[in-house]
Amino acid sequence: MSADQPTHLLFTYGTLQQPEVQLDTFGRLLEGEDDALPGYTVDYAEIADPRVVDLSGLSVHPIVRETGNPLDKVVGRALRVTEDELEAADEYEVSLYRRISVVLASGRPAWVYVAA
């Protein structure tokens, strides 16, 4: 498989779903499907990075936190990304977030940014 083929899923629930953020961060619009992340809930965080605020148009971004309760879930999209695009997403996300591996409601493994 070619290195530029999307081989990872990145679960997004916030600004990474915005077309302008995808174009700036990845240089293209990403394909994906609706999915959900069980055992987590959405909170909100103040973003201080002016580049991220300017790009997203928002100074407060959603951030997910693990609850351990299977009844909790975060709805979002599982986007197909390459290894390079994962690294670009790491650059976009501020230090309030860390990337972890999870299993989505669909049963598929994916990366997601959660509260650091």
Tell me what the structure shows.
The structure is a single chain. The chain has helices spanning 19-26, 50-56, 83-92; strands spanning 8-12, 32-38, 40-46, 60-66, 73-81, 97-103, 109-115. Strands 2-5-1-7-6 form a 5-stranded mixed beta sheet. It has a two-stranded antiparallel sheet with strand order 3-4. The protein has 3 helices and 7 strands. The mean pLDDT is 95. By secondary structure, it is α+β, with helices and mostly antiparallel strands. It is globular and about 35 Å long. Helices cover 22% and strands 42% of the residues. The termini are far apart. The longest helix has 10 residues, at 83-92.
Task: Please write out the topology.
Layout: E1 8-12, H1 19-26, E2 32-38, E3 40-46, H2 50-56, E4 60-66, E5 73-81, H3 83-92, E6 97-103, E7 109-115
Parallel strand pairs: 1-7
Antiparallel strand pairs: 1-5, 2-5, 3-4, 6-7
